């Protein structure tokens, strides 16, 4: 009898641990734009601000509702948007709010009020925070592979104009508007210039950083080498062609660079991290390493196969970073890629996870100094 009761208790515990629940989120009051579509974006859908599967439905009396069935026990973070991050919810004064949180332990229903929207708040002037070592090469640099124009930034070390015969390694980075200047950044800058102004003298390791602005509504396709049913035809291969065949030759011709792959790197976050990973597949003879911050591997499962099949003949340096509060699969996806590359026995890798890390510039800014130290060691 005791054995039977113990077995039943064990089965019951297993059932409870694997139980899934229903979560209902009801928005009872919307301060403005109440007729617009509203979406929920969080760590359960990779912070997609316009996920059609996460669009709220009318619920009578001006309310909106979304119901999630089969939700696992766990900690969830989210915000509401009207389809993009420049239309995310705020306080009634237009101030940013922390991520909303929900700990699911059973069937849950919560009521929520949306106090304001970011695009309703008066635009506050942002300071120009770029250091004197940051320059804009061109506000409309032509990208022949995509028939588009793009702003290109460059960071030159303090010694660049003082030591005329010195050459430097180069890091090419995506989302250029978020790297150096608060005035152009969407959700805070990385502070690359301030970081390097401080670190380079301490480490005696200097480099040039080239920032390429993202293409706004083209970002999801330019940073994706594969076609996607939701976002459209992938343009990542043409984008990398632009960097390797157009931009890099220009930089090498006009600036004192170390031109070989051993001293040429590429880095980015989210979709920018995804395309940085693919750059090592498409151009292994151009890039010698990559900084891959919070990569959006969830969007491109084919990338795992392409990396696994890549015939790499040299040793890359690859730095992975992910935060445990970014999405339910972020750490697992990055770890999977790390393990695939590890099995190839051809690369020097570093993988960092941060338990409190969220999917935004604040945490990438905090991680960049460690990446730079590791890359330049």
Short key terms for the protein model shown above:
8 helices; alpha/beta; 2 domains; Rossmann fold; 27% helix; eight-stranded mixed beta sheet; Immunoglobulin-like; 377 residues; 17 strands; four-stranded mixed beta sheet
Characterization of this structure:
With 377 residues, this protein is an alpha/beta fold. It has two domains: 20-120, Immunoglobulins (Immunoglobulin-like, Sandwich), CATH 2.60.40; 134-376, Rossmann fold, CATH 3.40.50. Helices cover 27% and strands 28% of the residues. The chain contains eight helices and 17 strands. It has helices spanning 2-18, 192-203, 219-222, 236-254, 271-282, 302-309, 330-344, 361-376, and strands at 20-30, 39-42, 57-58, 64-72, 74-81, 89-90, 100-104, 108-114, 116-117, 134-143, 148-155, 170-173, 208-212, 264-269, 289-293, 316-323, 347-354. Strands 10-11-13-12-14-15-16-17 form an eight-stranded mixed sheet, sandwiched between helices. α2 (192-203) runs parallel beside α8 (361-376). The radius of gyration is 23 Å and the shape is globular. The chain starts with a helix and ends with a helix.
């Amino acid at each position: 009898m005791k054995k039977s009761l113990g077995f039943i208790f064990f089965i019951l515990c297993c059932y409870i641990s694997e139980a899934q629940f229903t979560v209902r989120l009801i928005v009872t009051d919307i301060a403005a734009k109440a007729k617009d579509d509203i979406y929920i974006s969080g760590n359960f859908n990779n912070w997609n601000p316009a996920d059609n599967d996460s669009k709220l439905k009318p619920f009578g009396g001006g309310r909106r509702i979304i119901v999630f069935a089969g939700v696992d026990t766990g900690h969830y973070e989210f915000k509401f948007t009207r389809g993009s991050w420049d239309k995310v919810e705020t306080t009634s004064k237009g101030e940013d709010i922390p991520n909303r949180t929900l700990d699911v332990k059973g069937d849950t229903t919560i009521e929520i009020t949306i106090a304001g929207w970011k695009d309703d708040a008066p635009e506050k002037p942002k300071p120009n925070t770029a250091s004197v070592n940051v320059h804009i090469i061109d506000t409309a640099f032509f990208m022949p592979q995509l028939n588009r124009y793009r702003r290109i930034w460059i960071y030159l070390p303090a010694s660049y104009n003082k030591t005329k015969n010195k050459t430097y390694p180069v890091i090419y980075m995506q989302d250029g508007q978020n790297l150096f200047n608060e005035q152009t950044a969407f959700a805070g800058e990385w502070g690359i210039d301030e970081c390097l102004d401080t670190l380079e003298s301490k480490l005696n390791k200097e480099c040039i950083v080239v920032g390429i602005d993202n293409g706004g509504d083209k970002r999801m396709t330019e940073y994706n080498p594969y076609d996607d049913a939701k976002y459209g035809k992938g343009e990542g291969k043409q984008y990398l062609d632009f960097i390797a065949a157009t931009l890099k030759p220009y930089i090498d011709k006009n600036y004192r660079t170390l031109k070989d792959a051993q001293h040429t790197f590429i880095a980015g976050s989210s979709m920018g991290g995804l395309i940085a990973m693919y750059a090592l597949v498409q151009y292994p003879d151009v890039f010698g390493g990559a900084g891959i911050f919070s990569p959006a591997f969830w969007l491109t499962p084919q990338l795992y196969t392409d990396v696994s099949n890549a015939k790499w003949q040299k040793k890359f340096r690859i730095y992975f970073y992910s935060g445990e509060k970014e999405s339910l699969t972020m750490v697992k996806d990055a770890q999977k890629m790390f393990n695939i590359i590890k099995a190839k026995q051809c690369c020097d890798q570093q993988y960092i996870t941060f338990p409190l890390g969220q999917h935004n510039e604040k945490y990438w800014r905090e991680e960049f100094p460690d990446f730079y130290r590791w890359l330049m060691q």
